[in-house]
Amino acid sequence: MSSKSAAAPWVWIVSGPSGSGKTSLCEALLADPVWGCRLQRSVSYTTRPLRTGERDGKDYHSIPKQAFLKLARKGAFLEHEEIFGHHYGTPRAAATQASRQGRELLCCVDVKGARSIRRVFPKGSTSVFILPPDLDALSQRLKKRSTESKKDIARRLERVKIELAAMRAYDYIIVNDKFSEALGQLKAVLSARRCESPYVLRSLRKAHR
Ligand code: 5GP
Prior knowledge:
single chain
């Protein structure tokens, strides 16, 4: 998918440290009939085993490392990164599919993945960073969801510094203290962006192609 492709969908990139609530915010947005119908979630491929409650093909495509590396070699990913000892990749096909369905693509990726996606869609993407109110809250949330081992939680907290250092490059930053407020802000970001002239002019060009 080239950034010059007229058919490229608008891409919403959402990042934030583990436990910031970015996945829950994206899910709430997608589940909302008004907001969800214009969006398509990019389901990443990963070598991380699925957590309890995660659905294969809906939350992630969980595949063995060899299969992942083969897909990477074939160029099947828009971007891919190794995070917490596992591989994660955004499938190129997700953008094509979103475009065919006339939807915008929603990618929940780490800060490096976000940088790569912005490079692919420099004029057709908006990035949003979800910030936890403070590090204590983050640590509490990670412990509370009890999906990771103690070692993994420590690893995730250690990585927060890298994530926070990259926050300035994002178009928007939302502090997720109260979930409903953060969700409202995320919707406001989508609304505002969709009224900006580059977005509207791009949509008009597409409509008159
Ligand atoms: P988790 O294991 O908690 O689901 O995800 C770990 C990190 O990987 C999170 O920051 C998540 O946003 C990120 N991530 C998930 N899918 C992708 C992807 O396709 N590409 C990249 N670069 N990061 C991803």
